[in-house]
Structures are given as C-alpha cells and as structure tokens.
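Hey, quick one: can you model this chain's 3D structure?
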Amino acid sequence: MAKKIVEFKDVVKKYGEGEATLYANNHISFSIDEGEFVCILGQSGAGKSTVLNMLGGMDTPTSGSVVVDGMEVSKMNDNQLSDYRASKIGFIFQFYNLLPSLTAYENVALTKNIVKDAGDPMEYLKAVGLENHANKFPSKMSGGEQQRVSIARALAKKPRVILGDEPTGALDSETGVIVLELLQNLCRKEKKTVIIVTHNADIAKCVDKVIKMKNGKIKEVIINENPVDVKEVEW
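Sure thing. Here's the predicted structure for all 235 residues.
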C-alpha cells in the first residue's frame, strides 16, 4: 500500500475578522501518496498558492493540520520550519530565481550551503540534460534551460517533496512540454513526489491526481488511473 507523504486535515487559512474575514483556504482536506505527480488546479484567487505556501513551510494555517513525511508542519516554530524547508522541500518557481552572477553549476552548487549531504551539481545538471551548459550564466540560456537549472537545484537537495509554482507559466508550449516531461519522469522513474499549482487544465491529463480548487475550497479530487505521457497531449 502506498505511503501517504502529505495530509491536509480540515485546514483553514483566513485573514481579518468578522464581516471582513477572507478565507484563502476554507476547511480543506486531502492526501498525497509518495511518488505521486499531483496538480492543484484553479484560477487566480482559488487558494492554490496558499496551499503550496503551507506545504513549503512559508505560511501556517489558522486552524487544522498540515503533515508532510510524518511531521506536523503546522506546529513547527521558525527554526524548525527553516530546517524543514532546507531538508525536505525542493522549490521550482515560475521565474526560475537563479542568481545572474553565477553559472548554472554554481547556482546548483548553492545547495551545499543549505544541506550537508547535497548532491553533486554536475550529476543533477546531467539529469536535466544540461551538463554541457554548466559554465553558462543565466543570461546566456533560454527560459527552458534556466527552468531546468532550477529543477536541478531543487533535486540536488535530495528533497522528499518537490513543489512547483506555475513551473511552465513563463515558457512557450514546446519548452513547457520538456519541463513537464522531466517532472513526470521524476515521479515515474525516481519515485519523487511532485506537486505543482497551475491554471492550465491541459496539465491535468498528465498527472496522477488533480485537486481542483475554487473560492478557497476543494471542488473535486480526480484520480487519473492512466495518466497520459506529456508528449501525447495536444498543447
């Protein structure tokens, strides 16, 4: 039986009080198994980024419980959250967040300052097909290449969970396919757990589980028994 690696239990995230209360997440519950490729789908303002921020230890719920890899993230103090983000979570951002003054290799090597047993940067650049770009600066790389460097950087931490915030949002469809195929293969071949938030419904065809959100609530959870290969989707 698959091991649950993420559990949201009746999570509420609200701002303000009384009539001015705004619910970013309104009593949401779901679970994610180890090795699953998951898409949190919804329009802007649906609450999906709030979910991602709580999974990443960058925000805490008003009430309810967030458990990742057996640890209750929602009860951690600031120091514990910092350690959790460093050791358990790999982040992939829409706009890459690479340091422009560092080469691809050096950007990935930054993980050695965060995690004691971080992996060899060249190994992870090779995994994303960029071993020949190790000495290039971000300004000399395409958007897709920069995003693949950011994925290599996330992987080099050897995280339990990889979180992607619109990881293909700044890419053209052809380059987006390359990045999504890489993420899909991380789940299928490396048994990594990958969770991405997006408003692109096409991505939902490629994942194992779709969590649809609207107005801070979970509208529907869909299990794809036979997710299609990324290359087979008409983008």
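One thing worth noting: Residues 199 and 207 are 14 Å apart (CA to CA).
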